[in-house]
Amino acid sequence: MKLSVDLSSLHNAVQTMGAEQINFEVSNEVIPIEPIDKQLGEGLEVNFADIEFETGLASYKGRQVLLYIKDHSYNNKIYGVLKDGTQGNRFHIADCQKLDEMRRKGRFERYVVTNKLDGQFAVSGTDNTNNQLIEGETNLSVCQYCLESLNYEKFRAMPRGQQRRMFVTSFKLADFFDTYSSFFKFMPTGVANNSDAGYSKDWDSISRNVRELFNYGCQQCGLDLKNNKRLLHVHHINGVKSDNSTSNLTPLCADCHRKQPDHQHMFIKHEETKIINQLRNEQGLNVKENWQDVYKLADPGMHGVIDLLEKYNVSFPEVGEEIQNDKQEVVAELELAWPLKKVGVAVDKISAIAATSAGWKVYSMRHALGQFEQLASSLR
Q1: I want to staple 125 with a disulfide (CB 3.0 to 4.6 A). Which of 73, 93, 218, 265 is the partner?
Q2: For residues 74 and 20, which has the higher predicted lDDT (pLDDT)?
Q3: Do the Cβ atoms of 323 and 308 come closer than 8 Å?
Q4: Is residue 227 left, alpha or beta, with left meaning phi > 0 and alpha meaning psi from -120 to 50?
Q5: Can you give the residue ranges of every domain in the chain?
């Protein structure tokens, strides 16, 4: 049932009393924590065929996940793995050549999928001498083939050997999930539960006052968000959430905020980044003078593609390009686009299909990375 609430009498009473009227926003969007989210936090055993790789990232029921084989029974391997997780099965974050190899061999083993962020994985194995089940947790390593398939943090340019091994050792799941957070509707429950941790009790009031002081403008990209106030955050410059001194607070749009150093766990939906891109275009802020500007404007999940584009010296793409049909109606938005060539890269499947129907050649992130030579050739 839809409720209609009229607060005009209350506003009139406030005005009569001479009290300050406070503007506020009400959001009716509630994203519940479903049983599947709790199960993923604990680890859920599924069939390999049920895991999706539409964008190239591992996905299960619309959630970003990683997957691994829990069993380490072979040659009593479980004992060594519990002591040193780097000796165990690698966990996968994307569709890679190793998983493709398993497909070709018909090895559809059961995997555990999880979106747990602490890097600790439940593992098990049978002791071959007494048939006893051994269980525990250990810190497994990420698959290097996955990192290469995504070109995560420019991984393809890293020399094989020591440098790549060091990157794997320092790999943080929280940072990885943050990079691709806008590709998925749901975020891990650990992120949702801790999003308000560290803020003072009066943070809502402080945040509102700072945004009003700067007239609801992003202090990095210059975006005017008076009509989209929920997309303007207040950033703690020194990273200390309890330090609410005036010099430490500055308003940033959600996109600029998530790209600040050490801002992992900041979940920004792709619908919100699309609105920000649209407003930047309308306000003439989508200016690209160099590749660094492209990085700043684009969704972080596209940075692996942009890195390769820069190396191939193709022309700068438009970021957040709206595609219209014959009736001049917006039917899709491409994250990266070359309008003269009618070539683009999309984050979501719906936009890709709509833009293709409008005569565009559209790549998903997965295909842009996997068929990059073809993409680059079409832009020359």
Answers
A1: 73
A2: 74
A3: no
A4: alpha
A5: 35-192, 196-264, 284-378
